[in-house]
Amino acid sequence: MLIKNVNIVLADKEVFGDVSVKDGKIAEIIKKERPQNNDANYLVPGFIDVHIHGSNNYDAMDADSAAIEKMALSLVKEGTTGFLPTTMTQTIQNVENALEAIAVYHKNQNPMATEVYGVHLEGPFINEGAAGAQPKNCIIKPTIEVFEAFNKKANNLIKKVSLAPEIEGSIELIKYLKANQIVASVAHTKANYATVKAGMEAGLTSLTHFYNAMTPLHHRDIGVVGAGLLHNEMNAELIFDEIHVSVAAAKVLLQAKGVNNVTLITDSMRAKYMPEGESELGGQTVYIKNNEARLFDGTLAGSILKMNDGYRNLVKDLNLSVVEASIMASVNPAKQLNLFNEVGSIEVGKKANLVILDKNFNVVETIIKGQSVYKA
């Protein structure tokens, strides 16, 4: 495969030219002189979504490997080439059933679909007072034993765990996660700054859907938001649909942390790609209107954001370069999952997981392991 005359978005700069693909990998980057009237498409590294519950009327909690496949088949349309199906707070049995189904699909993945890189376990180890759209009646205290049982059902695929560090047992679990190279992320939390600091010392390295369902910044105790802005040891997830987080708040985050410490996510639920109306999340009815997903009481319940739309928002509304946007959408998640030697940037020898975007950031074509899996 030869991808000709594109603006190639590398990890540190943008160049014009061709990219040659052989045996599923990037074989050569051929730089050429940029034409004067350059309206060529962009070639960007495939997006990696580390926090996504559902899409196309399917959900990671459906406990059905066919549902994971159908979800993965829909994600190629937005340029996502790798993802972590994300579970949510539910009964132990429901979570275990969901994990088993993801593990079954992972063993025999559809080559035309977005790759499953592992699982993101969001909940059930969270604070009732910051549950958001997570069902409170299913919240449990964290223990290493419960987590190990979850990971066994998942065939050791859990790569990221979102939890509240102030809950009894959390610090011990965070230490265990760090020792086992699993990302520990602060989420759905009422923690104060001292607790977050203790969590960081134990191994917290991530902030789940930053600003949302966490202690806000206060000048006497900077809380979780303040800790995130202050400490670049923690990478912040950003749902940039401009509903969960305003443009101004996103600017504050990036001014404090820089693009190297923020990861674009969708946190999308099953209503993505579906018409407006009623949907479902964690057994709760969700109402979709004006691109928003909310519970009956108005609580935001995930998003219906597509990765390429989030990418467009970064460039158009935050004035980021395409290189900076790709750091947030591809480089950072690949690094977080220890996959950057294989994916996440356009480099010779890496997997040819690529997306061609037009000048308005609509997906023209998605390529996974050198194979065209979607064309608009």
TrEMBL record:
This protein's UniProt keywords: Carbohydrate metabolism, Hydrolase, Metal-binding
Taxonomy of the source species: Bacteria, Bacillati, Mycoplasmatota, Mollicutes, Acholeplasmatales
Species of origin: Acholeplasma hippikon
Pfam families: Amidohydro_1 (PF01979)
Gene3D superfamilies: Metal-dependent hydrolases, Urease, subunit C, domain 1
Alphabetical list of SUPFAM superfamilies matching this protein: Composite domain of metallo-dependent hydrolases, Metallo-dependent hydrolases
InterPro entries xref list: Amidohydro-rel, GlcNAc_6-P_deAcase, Metal-dep_hydrolase_composite, Metal_Hydrolase
Domain of life: Bacteria
Protein name: N-acetylglucosamine-6-phosphate deacetylase
Binding-site list for substrate: 133, 212-213, 220, 244, 300-302
